[in-house]
Amino acid sequence: MATAADDVTQIEAPTFYHIDAHVDIAGQPPRVYAIQDTNYTNKTDVPLDVIYFRVFPNKPSYGSALTFEEVTVGGEEVGLNHQVEGTAVGLVLPSPLLPGESLDVHMEYDVTVPVADITGYGTFNFQDGIMLLSNFFPMAAVYEETGWNLSLAPDYGDPVYAETSFFTVELTVPQEMVVVTSGSTIATNDHEDGTTTTWRCVSGPMRDFMIVLSDRFEWSSTAVGHIRLNSYYLPEHRPAGEQVLDYSRDCLRAYQQNFGPYPFAEFDVVEAPIVGGGMEYPGLVMLDEQQYAHSGEYLEFLVAHEVAHQWWYSVVGNDQVNVPWLDESLTNFSTVYYYEHAYDRARADLAFQNFVERRYRQMKEEGRDGIVYQPVEAFSPQDYGPIVYGKGAVFFYELREKLGDAVFLDVLRAYLQDRKYKLSTPDDFLRVAEEVSGQELDGFYEEWILSAD
Predict the structure, then answer these.
(1) Strand partners, 6
(2) Distances 102 to 89, 125, 167, 269, 410 between C-alpha atoms, Å
(3) What whole-number distance in Å separates Cα of residue 183 and Cα of residue 178?
(4) Which of 62, 208, 268, 327 has its CA 20 to 30 A from that of 157?
(5) Preceding amide of 29 cis, omega within 30
(6) CB of 255 closer than 8 Å to CB of 103
(7) Residue 45 covered by a domain
(8) What pTM value is reported for the model?
């Protein structure tokens, strides 16, 4: 994490997580037993009587449950206030936490891991010998001007809205398991029982921490400058897994050249039993195993999309529940930079038309155009992709045409620097774009993002 180490001073009062987790894969259902210590700082300008944590394993579609055994603040037990279908829990503080002050939260809990097919993206389960522990831990919620943001996306939207934090995770698993995480593994320790190993993993500034483990993985690795790039895949999908490594290498080169450095020492791409194509996490992305089994041109586009999320979602964050278009649209547009780097402009335009623009244009021809700037729940599952991933990406494509390639690239670079490790809003992007380009863009923005035609 050589580059990220230089960025630490840019982050205002980050949250620090230390999680000691033990994975029991033999249980029915499998479970994770965890002890978590969180150092939280009040970055608001008001005293806080309650601190909220998101508890996503309690979302009904996860098919699981997180049960607290003990929760203390500064050594004192606290009351718990469960909200939003159990996916948020408020810790009633013994005394108000004043602006700028910090406190330590101690939690002990266990989490059941589902093994059956479930709705949603399937990023929290144990199937095909692969365990996915997406958002398994209580995560500090975001406090905004209007209070705590506890919005919950439907199953076809990303659930996490989080500020940049630091993670230290010690994970004890069966010895035969290969562990892949956000951040980097700095040590492993085989225990005297001969059956378990503890993996010690740490992260640079990240919004989330993902864990994948399996005794079936093979992997291939390469280097992109200081970055160790790993592709994990099932043995029967080795050719596709090695192709994914090549695609990911070229993506990292293209996006670093165009946007700015990837800040971490490691990046992992993992085959997983999920639905929806792929899912992004800081330092790690997962791709649907069906894409490996039937690899084709879409696999290449999917890799380009998920890798671009390391810039738009991971480094520059946003409210993925209420403003999903800001990262998804920009990420989908950003794939053109990969195709231009790997091939040429003509190939980039063709890929954009085939994989991004076509579904939106077809929807518009059917008379079903829509407003881009809406929360996930405002869209039907059928309209969410064409509008958020399609129309929103076309906005960025057309903005590039309007401003010119060089100026638009200056806008993206300035936007990255302006919102690096922060939370961004559409107003932030528009402000940066107008400052850099010297053009008034309100009308253009309203036409594409705020209008239904």
Answers:
(1) none
(2) 19, 34, 17, 35, 38
(3) 15
(4) 268
(5) yes
(6) no
(7) no
(8) 0.96
